[in-house]
Amino acid sequence: MLSILPGKKIAELDKSYAREVGISSWELMERAAESFVSWFLKGFSGVQEKVFIFSGPGNNGGDGLAIARLLSEKGFAVSVVLFSSKENSSVDWQVNFDKLPEGISRYQYPEIDFELASSAIIIDALFGVGINRALGGEYLEVVNTLNQLSGKKISIDIPSGLPSDSLVEGVAFLADMTVSFQFPKLSLLIPEHSKYVGDLHIADIGIPDSFLDQFGSNKSFVQASDIQKMHKRFDNFSHKGDFGRILLIGGRGGKVGAIILSTCSAMRTGSGLVHVWAEGASKDVIHISCCEAMVEGEKILDELDKFDALGIGPGLGEVPQDLLRNIFQSTGKPMVLDADALNVLSKHPELWDLIPKGSILTPHLKEFERLTGKSSHHFERLDKASEYAVQHKVYLVLKGAFTSISTPDGKQYFNSTGNKHMATAGSGDVLTGMITSFLGQGYDPLNASLCGVFHHGLAGEIASKTKARGMIATDIIESIPSSFLEMQID
Ligand SMILES: NC(=O)C1=CN([C@@H]2O[C@H](COP(=O)(O)OP(=O)(O)OC[C@H]3O[C@@H](n4cnc5c(N)ncnc54)[C@H](OP(=O)(O)O)[C@@H]3O)[C@@H](O)[C@H]2O)[C@H](O)CC1
Ligand SMILES: [K+]
After folding, report:
1. Which of 395, 390, 393 is nearest to 410 (CA)?
2. Is 98 assigned a ligand-binding role in the annotation?
3. 362 assigned ligand-binding residue
4. The whole model's pTM is what?
5. Residue ranges of the chain that CATH labels 3.40.1190.20
6. Which residue, judged by its Cα, is nearest atom 43 of ligand 1?
C-alpha cells in the first residue's frame, strides 16, 4: 500500500532513501524522468512529435529537463522554456541543464511565441511539491496562457499552482493528465482539484512501500496488488454456509429497486445465502428480480443472530428510530449502514454510540453532510470523517472519486478504481450489497470495505468499456464477476 506523505516530507524522503541505497539525488531524479518517459511512450509514441516543456527553478523543473533529454533521444522534437537563470536554479536542475542535447530548442521566458507551442504536447514542470505560495508574476502569466491552449497538457508530479496538502489559492495549471511520482499527493485526490489534475497516473520510482512506511503517514493509496492479498481463499470442499448468510433490510414503498440492486450485487460478490427483509408488494418484485434470494417478513428481525452480516438502508424510506435501535441492541455484530439508515442516524445522534463497533457506514457526500454538517472543502470533510470513525469506532466509507475509508484507529485509505460513469442511480446500493457480502463471508470490516470499494470501482471500469455514459447500476453488477477474473480471485 502506498503511504501518502505530506509534500514537506518529500525532500526528507528523497534524501534518506538516496543515502540508504547509495545513489545521488540526481540519480533519483533520473529514475523519476525515466518512469515518466516510459509512461509517456505508451500513450504518445507516434502520435505527436512536438513537445514543449515549461521548466521552473526547482527539482520539478529539473525533472522537466531530464525528461526533455530522454524524449529528445527518443526522437521527439523537444523545446524547453526556462524562467530562472542557471545559478538561481536547484543543483540537480543545473546538472540536467548541462546535459541538454544540442538539438533541443531553448527559450528564456518571455521570449517565446506561444503560437509554436499551440500545436505541441505541453509538459508542465514549473512547480512540484515545493510550491510555497500562490502563482504570481511571470508564472501566473504563463499558466494563464497555457490554460487557454487546446493541445494535450501533462503535469509532472502535481499541476503547478496546486499545493500538495491544501486547497488551491488563485490560478493553477489545468492538466489533462498528471503523472505523480511514487504516491499520489493528497491534493490530487480531492474533488475541488479534479479539473486541474485530469487523469491521474502514479509513476513508480522504486522507493519500496516499506521505506515510505517509516515516515508514519496515516493515509494510504490502495492498489490492485494490495487487494489481491486481502481475499479469502475457498477450496473444493467449501459449501454455501462458508460463503456467509446475510440479511439486507430496505426496499419499502416505491424504492424496492434499491434493495434489489443490493441483493443481486451481494449474490454476484459471492454470498452463499442472501435473505431480504421487505414489506408488502415489494416481496414479489424481489423474488422475480433475484430468484436466488430469500424474501423474509417482519418476524426475521427476531432472528438476527442467525446472520453473519446485515446491510441496512437502501430504499428503506423513513422508519422510526426504534427499528434501528432494536437492531443495534439485538446484535453486536458489525453491519453495513447506508442511505435511509444513515438519514435516521443523522436525525438521531443519540443512536450513534449504539452502532455495533466495527460497523461500516457508507455515506455519499450529501449523506455525510447530513450526518456531520457542512464542510467548506474536502480536506475538512476528510478530517471530520476520520474524527467520526475514531469517536464512534466505525469504518466510514465516504463515497465519490477516490472513495476514502476512515478507520477507528485513525487511518485513512483511498481507493484507486472507478470512473465518472459510475455516478449513476443505484451505484451506492450496489456497493452496499458488495460490502455486506464480503462481511458475511468472514472478511474483517476493513478488508470488507477495501475489497468492496475496490471491486465496485473495477466492475464499473469494466462495464464502462462498453457502456460508457450509458452505464447503469445493473451493468456494474453484471461486471462484478469480471472484476474477480481480472484479479485472478477464484
Ligand atoms: N521522491 C520524489 O517524489 C522525487 C521528486 N522529485 C521532484 O522534485 C519536486 C520537488 O522539488 P523542489 O525543488 O523541492 O520543489 P519545486 O520544484 O516545486 O520548486 C520549489 C522552488 O520554487 C520556489 N517557489 C515556490 N513557490 C513559488 C512560487 N509560487 N513562485 C515562484 N517560486 C516559487 C522555491 O523557492 P523560494 O525560495 O522562491 O521559495 C523553490 O526554489 C517534486 O515535485 C518532483 O517533481 C525529484 O526529481 C526526484 C524524487
Ligand atoms: K508540475
Report:
1. 390
2. no
3. no
4. 0.96
5. 228-486
6. 128
Q: Is 131 in the pocket of ligand 1 (CB under 6 A)?
A: yes
Beta strand 412-415 pairing with 404-406: antiparallel
Q: Where in the chain is the domain with CATH 3.40.50.10260?
A: 2-213
Which positions ≥6 away from 207 have C-beta within 8 Å? 13, 17, 182
CA of 81 to the centre of ligand 1 (A): 17
What is the second-level CATH architecture of the domain 2-213?
3-Layer(aba) Sandwich (3.40)
Q: Any idea which of 98-102, 204-208, 210-214, 454-458 has the lowest mean pLDDT?
A: 210-214
- For residue 128, pLDDT over 70 is answered with yes
> 177-181 and 199-203 as β-strands: parallel, antiparallel, unpaired?
parallel
What's the rounded mean pLDDT across residues 26-36?
Answer: 97
Provide the percentage of residues in the chain whose pLDDT is more than 70: 100
Ion ligand 2 contact residues with beta carbon within 5 A: 124, 155-156, 160
- C-alpha cell, 26: 540526481
**Cβ 97 under 6 angstroms from ligand 1:** no
**Domain covering 228-486 assigned CATH 3.40.1190.20 in the classification:** yes
pLDDT band at 48 (very low <50, low <70, confident <90, very high): low
Q: Whose CA is nearest to atom 45 of ligand 1?
A: 60
Q: Which residues contact 208 (CB under 8 A, 6 or more apart)?
A: none
Does ligand 1 have an atom closer than 6 angstroms to the CB of 60? yes
- Cα(158)–Cα(148) distance, rounded to whole angstroms? 19
Q: Is the ipTM of this complex over 0.85?
A: yes
Other beta carbons within 10 angstroms of residue 404's beta carbon come to 22
pLDDT of amino acid 216: 86
